[in-house]
Amino acid sequence: MVDASLRSMILQIMRTMRDEHGISFLYITHDLATAHQISDETFLMYQGHTVEHGVGTSVLTQPRHPYVQQLVASIPRIDMKWEGTITLPDNAASGHSAPVGCPFTARCPYRMDICTTTMPKLVQIGADDQQAACFQYEQQSVAHS
Description:
Residues 51-115 form the Oligopeptide/dipeptide ABC transporter C-terminal domain. With 145 residues, the chain is of the alpha+beta class. The chain is 35% helix and 12% strand. It has 6 helices and 4 strands. It has helices spanning 4-21, 32-38, 58-61, 66-73, 90-93, 135-144, and strands spanning 41-46, 49-55, 123-124, 131-132. It has a 4-stranded antiparallel β-sheet with strand order 1-2-4-3. Strand 1 and strand 2 (49-55) form a beta hairpin. The longest helix is centred in the first third of the chain and has 18 residues, at 4-21. The radius of gyration is 17 Å and the shape is globular. The relative contact order is 0.13.
């Protein structure tokens, strides 16, 4: 945790090193704002599992996985008044997930029966290089094949 001006300087140094010297960084953070600023490729994880992957900032600007959608929607915006409440199911609030299936099932508004028994794989979404581990996209991929 550093203050905003120091964080800005560090990110600028990282961008300069990347652009001028071809240096790559593995940047692990909970701060989506800095991830958005620095990332060429983004992986978002939930309980140790990659739920979405994309090139550039597509994961943060056009989230596909329900967890990432909720995560991005929860980011406070200075130009909008917060309205509403956040309610978590008891088992999701404790951070425990089912031993099988999608770890986000308890919180997911789109859950299907298969989500409780099978771990979804990352599947390609659309023409870009974005991927999400969600059966709602896997079902669409099968339908378009």
